[in-house]
Structure formats: structure tokens, C-alpha cells
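Good morning C.,

I know you're traveling, so I'll keep this short. The sequence:
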Amino acid sequence: MTARLVELDQRNTDFAARLAAETGVRNVQIVTGDAALTGQYADMVPADIVLACGLFGNMTNADIERTIGYCAQLCAAGGTVIWTRARWSAEFRSEPDLVPQVCAWFEERDFERAWLSGPEYPICVGAHRRTAPPLPLEPGAVMFTMRDHFRGTGPVR
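The C-alpha cells, ready to paste straight into the viewer:
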């Protein structure tokens, strides 16, 4: 099994490469590049595990929904997408908790909820399993655009 980490910031990929080497982790490809481009994954799909962590709090709601649609192209039948999303603390909350909507977007696209952390945790971790065959990967597509992050509220929605 091979894993691929795609990250635009070379400081992060340098750190990941050092950590992998120091801990003896093998079969992980560390790529400095734009994780939003479907071409980064063309030779890796369909995948058994797709990580969408640290993304959904840094993009608009429309980009979150679109990215979930691309997860249906990246993920194998029976594969799992593990994702994260802040629930935003009460003192910063500017809109309702988006986690239920994120779940609905996955479930509308032939994913079933495998696990979801409880509302008592400020950061939600979710896992959705693909119940249908993967859709064909759209070549040359941009799955999302990262937005400026504002502490407590995320990007302008």
C-alpha cells in the first residue's frame, strides 16, 4: 500500500519527509504541490482511504460541497473519507454548526456515515464510507480554493 501527501507549503513537506525518515515510515510519497488539483491523484485512484483534514474550515461552503463531490471520484467503493471541520466555539459562532450539512452532502453522494465525533468536541472528525463505485476522475480539475482563515469563524462564507 502506498500513501501520498500533497502539500503546497514546502516547510510542511520537508518536515513530513524528515519525520517519515526518522520513524522508518515507507511507501509514503511526499509531494510539494497543489492538493486541489485532481492530477495529483490520477495514478492513485480509486483510493481505500482519502484524508480531507484541515480543509473544510478554510474554504467556502460551496467549495466544501464541491470537494465532497470530488471525494466520490477519489474514493473506491467501500473506501473511507476521513474529514475534519471545526464546530466553532460559542463565543465566535457566526453561523450554525456546518457539520450536519457536511454529513448530508456526503450522504447525498452515496457515502454512509461510519463515525462522527460528538458535539462536545470543538473539532469534529468524521468518517464516511463510499457505498457506490467511484465516479471517473475529472482530469485537470481544481477541486477547491483555500480562503483566508479567520480565527473562530473560518473564511468569509
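Safe travels,
E.
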